[in-house]
Amino acid sequence: MILTELAKALQENWEVRGEAEITGLVIDSRKVKCGDLYFCLPGLKFDGHDFAPQAKEKGASALVVERFLDIDLPQIRVDDARAAMSYIAQAFYGYPGKNMIGVGITGTKGKTTTSFLVRAIAKAAGHTVGLMGTVCNYIGDMEEPAELTTPDPIDIQKMLSRMKDKGCDFFVMEVSAHALALHKLYGMHFTEGIFTNFSQDHLDFFGTMDKYCAAKAEFFSPFYMEKAVVNIDDEAGKKMLGKVPCLTFGVSEPSDTYATDIEIQETGVRYTLHKGELALDLDLKISGIFNVYNSMAAAVACLDLGIAPELVKKGLESVEVVPGRLEPLPTNTPYRIILDYAHSPAALENILTTVRQFTRGRLICLFGCGGGRDKEKRPIMGEISGNLADFSIITSDNPRLEVPMDIINAIEVGMKRTKGKYVVIENRREAIKYAMSVGRAGDVIVLAGKGHETYQDVGGVKHPFDEKVVVNELLAEMTEK
Question: What is the mean pLDDT of the chain?
Fold first, then answer.
């Protein structure tokens, strides 16, 4: 495409100097190919403007800049290069999501599970569905790995374009607060937006809970969506109301859709969903009160999209497991092992409260906290595990560039406020091995924090570490002995 034509997609002040044929879009100067348009993005550590010479050397045709550079390349100057990237990416790929039904889901917890449930309902209704999220991406039934909860705009539009080419008429996307703050979705419009819940997380990025909440609330506006679906039981849900037509759901607060006769079991949850005169009996294969909320969110959105109640029921009841979310591992041992991505205080409290309901023996919680992330939550999570688990094993999560024991010591501060019994084992593999060695009949071991992840980030290097694989390897070792 021609540079000036792409510039016309911008919704802000812009100025073009020069002309060029653009054959690709890129934000990493190391990945530039001939014909690419290179976006000079200012960041927390590096400024993309400083790498424009390298981009030129690799064959970039033009630049998007926030200040004109003294470099012999055509340039588009904009006020916000990140926002510009979102608008230009959509134009470059031909606005692939424009004629699809789009559902965007935001919230501290529940985004992944809710996205899987929406996908299942849409599939039951005969749609060809694409999904972008934390665990994986789907183009129809083809699964692909995911790197970020919400990818960068170029990758979003490229993925939507591939979905469109494969016949997708419906897409579901997890929308992170980071993505909203970084303007990754500028210019995108969703048919429905869902708010799941709000609790402490990501304060390393946002600084305060108010700023974190405001980033999510920004999503619920006509700029992004036609209609909102909001968990009104969550206090922050009220901050999502008022800017677009809204449907509410809940269990305790008056709402448009609500649940009664909730029965939480080890193998799932049953409840009746009420919406107007509709009373829909549901028998889900995923457990926990939080999955009552996740399934209600998915159901409300899909019912509003015109999907028949019986197909909503069929879709919800077809989901047997969501990877790394309250996922039981097939260990064939007297004790059970459950994998969960819980890495925030509220998520850890939810998973332990849920598992406690079907634990006949001891509840053993193995967890850590990520390095380079919100430090305030570390003692809070220690206190939660100390109060709710019978025994805790504090270990490493993804320490990244931090010293693992510094993170563990911060967790211990909270643990020591409780009477909970615990042990510290820094090496996560050894910690899992220890948990399995002390597990007795009726015990449930919760491996919290990493869930679906297949790596451990230590010292800034991602090492292979899939807890499903680790557990199987340890089982084999124990059998040999």
Answer: 95
